[in-house]
Amino acid sequence: MTPEALSALHARFGEQLSTVPAVLDAHGRDESGLEHVRPHAVVFALSEADVVDALALARTHQFAVVPFAAGSSLEGQLIPLRGGLSLDVSGMKKVVEVQPGGFQATVEPGVTYPELNRLVRAQGLFFPVDPGAEASLGGMASTNASGTGAVRYGTMRDNVLELRVALMDGRVIRVGSRARKTSAGYDLKHLFIGAEGTLGIITQLTVRLWPLPSHVVALRCPFPDVEAAAACAVSVMAAALQPERLELMDAEGLRAVNVHKGTSFPERPTLWIELASPSAAALEEALSLCRELCLDAGALEVGMARTAAERAALWEARHHAFYALKALYPDHTTLSTDLCVPLQHLPAIIAFTRAQVDAEGLHASLLGHVGDGNFHVLFHARPDDTTVWARIEAVYDRMIAQTLALGGTCSGEHGVGLHKRRFLAQEHGEALDLMRDLKMLLDPHGLLNPGKILPDC
Amino acid sequence: MTPEALSALHARFGEQLSTVPAVLDAHGRDESGLEHVRPHAVVFALSEADVVDALALARTHQFAVVPFAAGSSLEGQLIPLRGGLSLDVSGMKKVVEVQPGGFQATVEPGVTYPELNRLVRAQGLFFPVDPGAEASLGGMASTNASGTGAVRYGTMRDNVLELRVALMDGRVIRVGSRARKTSAGYDLKHLFIGAEGTLGIITQLTVRLWPLPSHVVALRCPFPDVEAAAACAVSVMAAALQPERLELMDAEGLRAVNVHKGTSFPERPTLWIELASPSAAALEEALSLCRELCLDAGALEVGMARTAAERAALWEARHHAFYALKALYPDHTTLSTDLCVPLQHLPAIIAFTRAQVDAEGLHASLLGHVGDGNFHVLFHARPDDTTVWARIEAVYDRMIAQTLALGGTCSGEHGVGLHKRRFLAQEHGEALDLMRDLKMLLDPHGLLNPGKILPDC
Predict the structure, then answer these.
(1) How far apart, in whole angstroms, are the C-alpha atoms of residue A85 and residue A67?
(2) Closest to A252 in 3D by CA, of A326, A181, A156
(3) Are residues B99 and B203 in the same domain?
(4) C-alpha distance from residue B262 to each of B222, B255, B259, B266, B329 (Å)
(5) Structural domain containing residue B278
(6) Does the CB of B145 have a partner CB in chain A at under 8 Å?
(7) Whether A101 contacts chain B with CB within 8 A
(8) Average pLDDT value over all residues in chain A
(9) How far apart are CA A48 and CA A53, in angstroms?
């Protein structure tokens, strides 16, 4: 960034601009463990006008712009590879409108999903996408995040109705519709969802809200091995029980949770299943069917969390599993995979993964949203242990090759960022060229979050 | 089309090519009632290679290509405005794969949704998008069609996992993923869904299948007026009953159905609601809550269709309502609107519409998928009655202006075609320019279904 650019930013943004080293540091990393890169400056945007003006200055002075909010991305999306400006929208927290009768809310991108949930709970509504971290809705849309609720309610893609997006050329466009469905022209909304800030900056979102289920229970079923647990997950889906959540954690994950949270869950591969129903009687029927399925599939027990407090404790444990696993080996670096396969292939890809991990003598933990066919393998090793990291990367490559052969995807919910760029050609073939064309169309000078998603843009 | 182009087509396609007048006629219209325009030739494609080769010849000889399958579009999408080639993919009927365990099927674009349903029923599965006509899945994806099932299962957009698309430049790309969710790069799939064949030709689809609900009942609730019925629909949605279907038909619609099908439904504005549950007990609870809601909202009675045969008869009647209404006035032309608003605005927009129709002394019937905030007004008049048609168009314009002011869309499910092009600038503002840019990127010579969606492309 040139001195002229910096003084132009200062003239426009005054105290909203920071070049304090600690601030630059905080905007140079996410939760991926990838190498930090400092931006040259940070602007704390408070309005759409701030975003538009920052982009205008970027255009004039040709510096890169990387959007930033909660800082919880897992694939290096927020790292300003080429320096430039980190555009922090975490202060854009306006709740523009909540429409309980229309099951929707319109918010600015810095609002986090727990904040939205606290806001709408009194109306008997909730927002179902829960990636775990205290993530912002703008960031969640930008990576098409999901979480435990996706098996029942879909991902961000399914829960964003309308966006306002600031484009690199100065336009602000509204894409999508507040209506539940539309067939009025090309769908531009889905271009910006999952684009990781490389095509435009989201300045407002209208999202869907859902009625809070009235009768809910969570089941905890430990299994003798991961493969049996995965096969049971497939049976639960096939039985049309339509669970609210269907999660798998392995023994190591439960050990980490026990250490981290002081819990005493059996340290076995475990399915955590949540069922809900509008009536108590219906819930009991579903519960009894699900319990039977789990026992038939080899569950060692079927624990139940019936009260709201019990369930909250259980899902908090699940949401903290990633951090608990990282905390178990504080001097290690962690790498999380994120593949997703068609459900019928889930047991096979899990067995393949275990075999690969064992053959290479690696240390890895598995946890995932198995009702969607999505799971994460957390590899870890000392940062300087190049031999082990080479083996990890080789296993990762083989896992992805196998996933793609089964019709799956290299990323179910974390996005591409830096680490998965190398898989995109393999996954998309010639469609990748069309992605490049779209990037050129919307950001011809490559100023929007350069180096992310596309290997060469 | 030049004689050279025609002989090149003949050399490649032989008996798959037709220039027989009756065949050209049949490919010059859809169900919109818009003016027929004959293509110069029809190719009956039987494979992806046929589609690719037809596009290659179009590129060489610069003729227009309009995809055609079931011919059931309602907005003139299939009309070859500038002549050229009608590319009939209705013979591409291969079922590539059905994966019951993965809840998905891969088919060619000529397969219709009733054909798919007959195929997967034995596995306890179904495909929920039901636009009414015997529509093809390729055409349904191209207009983002929906129908009565959308309130519970979403539209084509929500039920297409993966597409193969032949592009104008000769490439065939695979977009989307067979995994239930993906965050791996820009979403190209949604560009082609709803693009009405203007960006590429769909040659294969992988769609989601759903478990057939085990316990189902349909309710029939006549109301004293349309406004009360619409308000009740909003209450049913707010009560989180998650109906399988939630339809409104007005008195005229029921009269048409009675005449057409020999039924004797009360000729009153009526809600048709379908509820389903995994258990009989749960269904009874939902039923009793729904019944109470309807009676509180002023329902004159609550009829029930409990057996599969009764329900089939009821939904067949609903699906035939459009044709029944057309048949009521055989010498009239029909125009159907298709607006969709956020649910909380449904009663207001229906009241507005009725007031407009009455003020202009028009004849119109209202029916719709009100659980989604989507409804159709069927206007009709003698084709040569220019005074009445001018009034109809004026009311239509005012309905759309009001819809857009309420955050709605000019098309919930029929697409844009020819008739709604004039509303797009109003609905999308500057985003329309980006749609034009996308069209230029994928079809620089304007050969793919020219004149559709975008007013000037």
Answers:
(1) 8
(2) A326
(3) yes
(4) 18, 10, 5, 13, 17
(5) 215-319
(6) yes
(7) yes
(8) 95
(9) 9
Closest CA to A216 of A117, A156, A92, A304: A304
The answer to whether residue B431 sits within a structural domain is no
Q: Which of A126, A144, A186 to mutate to test the interface with B (most CBs of B within 10 A)?
A: A186
**Distance of CA A244 to CAs A129, A149, A371, B50, B372, Å?**
11, 6, 10, 45, 22
**Could you tell me if residue A440 is inside a domain?**
no
Residue B33, domain CATH: 3.30.43.10
Residue B315 CB neighbours (<10 A) = 19
CA–CA separation, B62 vs A122, rounded Å?
Answer: 61
Q: Looking at the DSSP assignment, which residues form a beta bridge with residue A381?
A: A333
Q: Are residues A207 and A99 in the same domain?
A: yes
Q: Are residues B109 and B173 in the same domain?
A: yes
Who contacts B32 (Cβ-Cβ below 8 Å, separation ≥6)?
B73, B74, B75, B76, B79, B417, B418, B419
Q: What is the rounded distance in angstroms from the CA atom of residue A250 to the CA atom of residue A237?
A: 20
Beta bridge mates, B165: B173, B202
Q: Which of A102, A194, A211 is nearest residue B343 as measured by Cβ atoms?
A: A102
Is A243 at the interface with chain B, CB within 8 A? no
The structural domain count of chain A equals 4
- Residue A110: CB atoms within 10 Å: 23
Claim to verify: residue A114 and residue A32 sit in the same structural domain: no
B109-139: pLDDT as tens digits: 999 999 999 999 999 999 999 998 899 999 9
The candidate with the shortest Cα–Cα distance to A371, out of A261, A446, A274, is A274
Question: Which ranges constitute the DSSP H helices of A143-279?
Answer: 150-153, 156-159, 189-192, 226-238, 251-261
Strands A333-336 and B270-277: unpaired
Considering only CB atoms, which chain A residues are within 8 Å of B285?
A: 278-279, 281-282
- What digits encode the pLDDT tens for the residues A188-245? 999 999 999 999 999 999 999 999 988 999 999 999 999 999 999 999 998 888 999 9
Closest partner CB to B185 (pick from A172, A373, A435): A435
Residues A51 and A125 in one domain: no
Residue B141, CB-side half-sphere exposure with 13 Å CA sphere:
34
Q: Which phi and psi angles does B143 have, rounded to 5°? A: -110, 5
Q: How many helices (H) and strands (E) does chain B have?
A: 17, 18
As given in the structure block, the two tokens for residue A270 are: 């475990």
Look over chain B and give the mean of its residue pLDDT values, rounded to a whole number. 95
Does residue B397 sit at the A interface (CB-CB below 8 Å)? Answer: no
On chain B, the residues whose CB falls within 8 A of the CB of A182 are: 144, 340, 409, 411-412
Question: How many CB pairs below 8 A link A and B?
Answer: 295
Residue A324 belongs to some domain of the structure? no
Chain A residues near residue B343 by CB distance under 8 angstroms = 101-103, 180
pLDDT band at A288; cut points 50, 70, 90: very high
Secondary structure of residue B80 in the 3-state scheme:
coil
- Are B101 and B49 members of one domain? no
For chain A, say whether B441 makes contact (Cβ under 8 Å): yes
Identify the domain boundary among B259, B293, B319.
B319
Domain boundary among A211, A241, A267: A211
DSSP line for A203-227: EEEEEE-EEPPSEEEEEEEE-SSHH
Same domain, B129 and B59: no
Interface of A with B in 353-372 (CB under 8 A): 372
pLDDT digits (tens, 9 = 90+) for B19-60: 999 999 999 999 988 889 999 999 999 999 999 999 999 999
Contact A374 B190 (CB under 8 A): no
Residues B102 and B199 in one domain: yes
Report whether pLDDT(B456) > 90.
Answer: no
Q: For residue B31, is it within any domain? A: yes
